[in-house]
């Protein structure tokens, strides 16, 4: 799959255990997101545009109003990266 650098970075953090918390507007559409790593840090590369592209490609999913997490398809799409720890 051909995914951008920012999408790759967000998917990698989600695959490690991160989550995307979302806020909905009065009309039910998502208007603000915050991407958290598994350590609780906020990922600045995760913008609303990146989030919408990942959701459109079904790389992330949410069930029952829970935070968005990486899907099986997203794990398959992400390339292996060394963890910078």
Question: If you had to describe this structure to a student in words, what would you say it looks like?
Answer:
This protein is α+β, with helices and mostly antiparallel strands. It has one domain. The chain has helices at about 5-15, 50-55, 70-75, and strands at about 20-25, 30-35, 60, 70. The strands form 2 sheets. Strands 1-2 form a two-stranded antiparallel ribbon. It has a two-stranded antiparallel sheet with strand order 3-4. Strand 1 and strand 2 form a beta hairpin. The longest helix has 11 residues, at about 5-15.
What's a concise summary of this model?
The protein is an alpha+beta fold and 85 residues long. It has three helices and four strands.
Q: Extract low-pLDDT stretches.
A: none
Q: Helicity, in percent?
A: 25-40%
Number of domains: 1
- Tell me about the largest β-sheet: 2 strands, antiparallel
Number of helical runs?
A: 3
Measure the end-to-end span.
Answer: 27 Å
The dominant shape is globular
Order of helices and strands: HEEHEEH
The number of strands is 4
């Amino acid at each position: 799959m051909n995914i951008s650098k920012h999408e790759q970075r967000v998917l990698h953090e989600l695959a490690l255990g991160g989550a995307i918390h979302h806020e909905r507007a009065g009309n039910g559409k998502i208007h603000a997101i915050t991407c958290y790593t598994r350590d609780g840090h906020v990922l600045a590369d995760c913008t609303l545009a990146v989030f919408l592209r990942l959701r459109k490609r079904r790389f992330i999913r949410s069930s029952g109003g829970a935070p968005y997490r990486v899907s099986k398809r997203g794990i398959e799409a992400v390339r292996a990266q060394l963890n910078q720890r």
